[in-house]
Amino acid sequence: MSETKIIADAELDTLRCLAGHLIPASPRHGVPGADDPAIFADIAGSMDRDASAVREALVVIDGLAGGRLTQADPVRQAQAIARFRDAHPALAAVIESVVARCYYRDARVLASLGVEPRPPFPEGYTVEQGDWSLLDPVRARGPIYRDAG
Amino acid sequence: MAARNDPVDVVIIGAGASGAAVAWALAETRMRIVCLEQGGWPNPARFPSAGMDWEAQTLGDYAISPNRRALPEDYPVNDDDSPIKIANFNGVGGGTVFYAAHFPRLHPSDFRVRSLDGVADDWPLDYRTLEPFYALNDRMMGIAALAGDPAYPDKEAVMPPIPLGRSGERIGRAMNALGWHWWPSDAAIATREYEGRAPCINLGQCGSGCAQGAKASTDVTYWPQAIRSRIELRTRCRVSRIETGDRDMATGVHYVDEDGQERFQPCEIVIMACNGVGTPRILLNSASGRFPNGLANSSGLVGKNLMLHPYAQIRGHFDDPLDGHRGPPICAWSMEFYETDPARDFVRGYCFQFSRGMGPARTAINGMADGLLPWGEGHHDAFRRLFEHSAGMASICEDLPEESNRVTLDPDLTDQDGVPAPRITYRLSDNTRKMLDHSIARGTDILKAAGARDITVKSPLPYAGWHLLGTARMGTDPDRSVVNAWGRSHDVKNLFIVDGSIFVTSGGVNPTSTIQALALYIAGQIKNRIYDLFD
Question: Distance of alpha carbon B307 from its chain centroid, rounded?
Fold first, then answer.
């Protein structure tokens, strides 16, 4: 059984709400938010070793929202999230990690960044050699090591 | 009851950087040699860069922390009492599977720190002694370099250097403006076809295994040649302790095989190649009535003098796009602040390892951790100012030996076979803190000269305990060292150590090149002394 199953559906709703606050959609950049159905499905299925910490974070933030984050009004949601990030930076970092590593592999998001939506291998990438003459002054300075045998 | 295997001549424990080198070097002796490795063979087809989740995998099965990975081949490490957390890879190739392939040698002065600077101890050998073994290792690993670096005595470049790219150029111009040394890094990365290895195609994921096979991890360099020379490599075999008999000689090793069967492997010679944490762990776990404080430990120094190379990371962001995650993350180094300068408030020094950018997910995770990337409305604009616009460096600071920094056996934590886990006790010294601060100031100077904005600093970098050194140091005095000048235990005459444990001092550079040169040197000593090896 996947460790992700330890997170109840209601808690996943909290996570989705949180993900939408973390990375909202941007019509200007033409990208979905992290609460987009496809991206969030990826997040929910990819927590791996962080599932326990995510659940802990969701319990904390629901508590800060006075019940369920999803049932709080927008002002109270924002307050709860701000307090969560301020008082629980390690848990907030886990949320940031699980959201970012799925959001930033979505093909739509990568396309908006000018990144080909493919793994590095097998095509690889091109890197410019650079100007090797930049080393001329370094050579001209001569040896800098201590010749200690 | 442990099953007893047929005897062999040599058992090597560990198939990483040094185990592979010593196995290959001893193959010509025609002795029967078996290497026991607790992990399996890496599968390049499964390395992260072959999948869309390439960044996420570096936080999962390909995480550098054994505690995070927690795979069957990993043993837990209690590093709660250290600001620097242990990193490793357990499998054929060892740490070379995950290393950045930054491949500097120690400098001549590193072997004479007591004579030159009045601190720590001199090594019982010098740079000139190791030089031919460095050169041999460079050829075996296939090192990309540019000859003529003024920070070193002359050395051969096996193949052309890795590209400077936009990042290296930007840093290089800044270094020239400051009048400071820099040079393209020696890299264990094939830049052309080399001994069956394909050339680098700039995957950018050296740190989680090279799917292309261009990076020189020992599973693709030494091991194929060693196995063709009839060295036997048994994977998923975890050694728990070394047995001794009459005359204080090792008689063999106890291990658990991949089926969970306890076995005893008799042998004439034991060679340890388990890194600076794994080696003292096994030695301390080999305590017996004759050796109550652990094997080879009459000096009391097994596990002590742990050196980790504290890193400071200094990164900046630029208006122009740079290389991003494309290309080997490393690109150039600087040895400007390597040697002791009496004008500074610390002794010894450090190198800078310059690096390119990161993938999109890592950019986001780090950007949020650094306070440069907000949640909510401003996220997207801020991300676009960071992504593919970053470059920076790590300072690799010389860590001087202190007996209080050590590896012991945890009284409670064990691996899945019941072998006690190592416990790390480690503190930064005042000298190290001053060195880290100096490197942050100079690194900031460099980035400002390069035109960077949004400069961030992490010091010490917590998840950077790669370089595990000093816990079974070499020396001529049995009261002050664990092994002699050619890697043989002072106490147990058929026990050798060839990994980073035997470093006397750490230098301020990545140690793999020196670890392997030492392994080749010790193999040479074993061959030269074969008829009176135990005298």
Answer: 11
* Alpha carbon B506 to its chain's center: 11
**CA A118, CA B84: separation in Å to the nearest integer?**
34
Residue B1 has pLDDT above 80, yes or no: no
Q: Closest CB to A137: pick one of B49, B176, B380.
A: B176
A86 burial (CB, 10 Å; 0-12 / 13-18 / 19+) is exposed
B427: number of Cβ within 10 Å: 11
**Whether the Cβ atoms of residue B350 and residue B396 lie closer than 8 Å to each other:** yes
Q: What are phi and psi of B264, to 5 degrees?
A: -120, 125
Residue of chain B whose Cα is closest to the Cα of A34: B376
**DSSP codes of every residue in A39-55:** HHHHHHT--GGGHHHHH
Chain A hits for B335, Cβ within 8 Å: 144-145
* Beta-carbon separation of B163 and A129 below 8 A: yes
What interface predicted TM-score (ipTM) does this complex get? Answer: 0.96
Average pLDDT over residues B2-24: 97
pLDDT in tens, B263-316: 999 999 999 999 999 999 999 999 999 999 999 999 999 999 999 999 999 999
Q: How many other CB atoms are there within 10 angstroms of residue B437's CB atom?
A: 14
Pairing of strands B8-13, B33-36: parallel
Closest CA to B463 of B287, B249, B313, B293: B313
Query: Can you tell me the distance from the alpha carbon of B76 to that of B65, in angstroms, rounded to the nearest whole number?
Result: 9
Neighbours of B36 (CB within 10 A): 24
Q: How far is CA B184 from each of CA A134, B172, B309, B389, rounded to the nearest angstrom?
A: 11, 9, 21, 20
Q: What pLDDT was estimated at residue A6?
A: 72
Residue A3: pLDDT over 80: no
In the block, tokens 């590193």 appear at B110
Site from A83, A121, A125 to mutate, B interface, most B CB atoms within 10 angstroms: A121
Q: Which residues of A touch B211 (CB under 8 A)?
A: 120-122
Q: Report pLDDT digits (tens) over A42-86.
A: 999 999 999 999 999 999 999 999 999 999 999 999 999 999 999
Q: CA nearest A116 in B: which residue? A: B52
| Pairwise CB contact (< 8 Å): A85 & B326 | no
Number of H helices, E strands in chain A: 7, 0
Which of A101, A112, A123, A147 to probe by mutation at the B interface, max B CB count within 10 Å?
A101
C-alpha span between B366 and B372 (Å, rounded): 9
B284: Cα within 13 Å, side-chain hemisphere: 24
pLDDT digits (tens, 9 = 90+) for B200-232: 999 999 999 999 999 999 999 999 999 999 999
Average pLDDT over residues B398-423: 97
Give A-chain residues touching B326 at CB under 8 angstroms.
125-127
| Closest listed residue to residue A105, CA positions, set B359, B201, B204 | B359
Q: What pLDDT, on the 0 to 100 scale, is given for residue A1?
A: 38
Assign domain B3-39+65-357+389-532 to its CATH architecture: 3-Layer(bba) Sandwich (3.50)
